Amino acid sequence: MPLSFEITARCPETGARAGKLHTSHGTISTPIFMPVGTQATVKAMTSEELKTLGAEIILGNTYHLYLRPGADLVAEAGGLHSFMNWDRGILTDSGGFQVFSLDSLRKISEEGVTFRSHIDGSKHFISPEKATEIQMKLGADIIMAFDECIPYPCEYEYARESTLRTTRWAQRCLLTHRNKKQALFGIVQGGTYRDLRELSVQGLVPLDFPGYGIGGLSVGEPKSLMYEVLDYTLPLLPEGKPRYLMGVGTPDCLLEGVARGIDMFDCVFPTRVARNGTILTRRGRLVIRNARYARDFRPLDPECTCYTCRNYSRAYIHHLIRTREILGLRLTTIHNLALTLDLMGAIREHIAAGTFAMFKADYLGNNQEYN
Amino acid sequence: MPLSFEITARCPETGARAGKLHTSHGTISTPIFMPVGTQATVKAMTSEELKTLGAEIILGNTYHLYLRPGADLVAEAGGLHSFMNWDRGILTDSGGFQVFSLDSLRKISEEGVTFRSHIDGSKHFISPEKATEIQMKLGADIIMAFDECIPYPCEYEYARESTLRTTRWAQRCLLTHRNKKQALFGIVQGGTYRDLRELSVQGLVPLDFPGYGIGGLSVGEPKSLMYEVLDYTLPLLPEGKPRYLMGVGTPDCLLEGVARGIDMFDCVFPTRVARNGTILTRRGRLVIRNARYARDFRPLDPECTCYTCRNYSRAYIHHLIRTREILGLRLTTIHNLALTLDLMGAIREHIAAGTFAMFKADYLGNNQEYN
User: What is the mean pLDDT of chain B?
Assistant: First the structure.
């Protein structure tokens, strides 16, 4: 088995669970947030810094790596771990999300998808088989079945057709996959239609994937609708297997996802907004380029113990972001990732201590923007 | 005394000397290279990383800091050291070089210089008094007299007029300066005219500055001419005071400067070319974005022990630079600074061991581009 999962604690009041996910590159404590390293690098960070922050697994984007530097080159380097100097866990997505979100003119058929590169417009074709082959070359610990991520809103008829095709594609991925060190996860689709989510789960569960992604959420629907979909979908999935909510990563959504039984998350949110100068704090967000921070010599978040908050002031980071200095992007990225990973650590501790429900209410209560 | 300097070793075959420069922020071993932190940050680096590389003193640009975030704000933060979280040495230039190089329409008078900001075109006036006041607020350990850096080539008559004015300005800086923790250095000008360099030294030495900058070099003249100016200028300066060759920082110029008796250097060269993907190695330069490095899994410089070379390959850095990833700029900056600072460390050791002349010949011989 390339992967084993054990649940070590459960919240008595919510669906939250804590566990251990054993991979070829170490054990991951769940619920976990995976920082996104799109192009074989979590933007602005070294692997050493990611370890210092406590990251146990990161995500790589198959679409981007397929285009640059190419899967064969990564394989030649000894796989993605070796290429990017990261010896902990890696999960690669299937490329499906990018193909559907970056090229509005892509052509989809039963066989696969034809799309154009966002870099040079060149034409490419990816099938479930090809997506799996690429991911085998990249060598991540967890790889994802090739799926179609349908938009929100989406006509029922199209959603149904797409969901059934994604299930057939998942089967083809499974038949292609033959790397014993990698775990291949299926992806539940179905949009915001309850019967389609059920249909998706019914198609995937018999294939006995070692874990399941929940796709097609956080694509523009209201948060309440996302929570509703999780509420009726998660109970359908096998208890003992990890569930990964794809593309979700704001503090409130992490807490709500965990409360419904999600074990894994990834999102560009903390790192992307950091580079734009938006700072997450335990009391809400702040936009560091605002003039009010020019002479504010406090740390970004006085309750934070990250490298940035221990050493640098809001005034200094305000200056760096305004002058477009690289160090500004680094310091804000470190802080936002630290806050997110610290939140996950606190979540795990509170699940183990049986106090998660209270912790969640407190955390959301302290964050005015979530009220 | 804010500064004391002792010479601890001399090369028997060249003018090279090794020494110790004691400042309010620690002792600096000379000859030293100062990484440039224009806007209160050495681009792409944290202060922690600079320490790991062995940087003992860095340079800040008064012109840039005056415009953003402003000297009063830096003073409010407790000075530049505290603002940027750097507890080792800092030298600030006077702003003169930027005023003359960034605004071709500046107006110069005996009183000072009127110029426009490169950021928003706003009009500003800097005099020797104002440049000194600003630098007192910034609080560096070593500050520089306000000077005019004349271009190359330059008419004799203008060069003479400017050189004499720079000397009068140096006097006014000295009269303004009243920070006992800072050392104020004079700057020798005179272009490439031997009699004007003599005139400059004759005017400045009686003012008894604790150290002297050699300005107006590395501004477009051939290297051989720069060496010639150093050959006739340095013997005129007092033996026991530090000499700082401003704006110089390629390996060959560092070695040639040291051989002529220079103790301090600064230059954007290693960091600026790094961000452009040009890598300095002990065997010459390489342009990492070239296709030949796409599958080269060796370190940037196999003889280097820096963080970049210990952990990442040319192929990976080629990928990062091609995809414009921030980590690429970081890794190349770390390496180029490590190479430059390591070179200075080797220079100091060889001066102490009496083997500097041989080391210099070997180093230049191994670097084909310097042959």
Answer: 97
